[in-house]
Specification:
Blueprint lengths: L11 H13 L2 H17 L6 H21 L1
Helix pairs in contact: 2-3
Length: 71
């Protein structure tokens, strides 16, 4: 029995778009988002408002994407 090939994460036509997007990402901002996600996971186990926590993370993620698209 042969092992099927794993499907690509992104179709070939999206690959160039994703590569260009990745090249415009600011790594410092990306690591700041990572730090915020780490803090969010830690805070999720406390009495913090989960909706506000998620909104804060999503806002930073949106800003990161907007900066990457706009160069």
């Amino acid at each position: 029995k042969s092992v099927p090939e794993h499907p690509r994460v992104a179709p070939r036509d999206a690959q160039a778009h994703l590569q260009a997007f990745a090249e415009r990402l600011d790594l410092k901002s990306l690591f700041e988002l990572y730090d915020q996600l780490t803090d969010a996971v830690r805070l999720a186990a406390t009495q913090v408002n989960p909706q506000m926590l998620m909104e804060d993370v999503l806002l930073m993620w949106t800003q990161l994407g907007r900066r990457a698209r706009n160069g």
